[in-house]
Amino acid sequence: MTTTYVLDGRQIRTLEDFWRVIGETINGPGGYFGRNLDAFADCLSGGFGAPDDHEYVVEWCDHQVSRQHLGYPETARQLEIRLSRCHPTNRPSVLADLGAARDGRGSTVFDWLVKMFDDRAPGVLRLQ
Predict the structure, then answer these.
(1) What's the mean pLDDT in 43-68?
(2) Which residues is 55 bridged to in the sheet?
(3) I need a labelling partner for 120 at 20 to 30 A (CA). Which of 36, 41, 69, 127 fits?
(4) Pairing of strands 55-61, 2-8
(5) Are 12 and 67 in contact (CB under 8 A)?
(6) Which residue has the higher pLDDT, 52 or 82?
(7) Edge-to-edge strand order for the sheet containing 125-127?
């Protein structure tokens, strides 16, 4: 039997909101399903926080609302955070991505999340 987890896109306005909403949706109040992209990838691949012993799908309802909020302004904000924490050798790449986001170009936070689903758990995400 396949379990369906439903994300309410109206509750997702920042990347931090996404971590909270998906964690609680899959693992209950205070639940964990990654709190950064690497941890999220691990969860999608069956690591800590992943649903136990069954198949699942994630329906992201009102995903267009999330897509708007997780667009270029939120992407620039996340890249500024990344820039403040990254290794000096990664700074040029992060700066280039930050410049693109500020110009309304490149991948957005929403795109990052959808790609992670597609890469690590193909077929699990359903955008509604």
Answers:
(1) 86
(2) 2
(3) 69
(4) parallel
(5) no
(6) 82
(7) 2-8, 55-61, 125-127
**Residues constituting the chain:** 128
**Residue 74 phi, psi (nearest 5):** -70, -35
Over the stretch 23-52, which tens digit does the pLDDT of each residue have? 999 999 999 998 999 999 998 988 676 776
Q: What percent of the chain has pLDDT over 90?
A: 82
In the numeric block, which tokens belong to residue 52? Answer: 């136990």
Distance of CA 90 to the CA centre of its chain: 21
Mean pLDDT of the chain: 94
Give the β-pairing of 125-127 and 55-61. parallel
Q: How far apart, in whole angstroms, are the C-alpha atoms of residue 116 and residue 125?
A: 10
For the record, the structure tokens of 88 come out as 């000096």
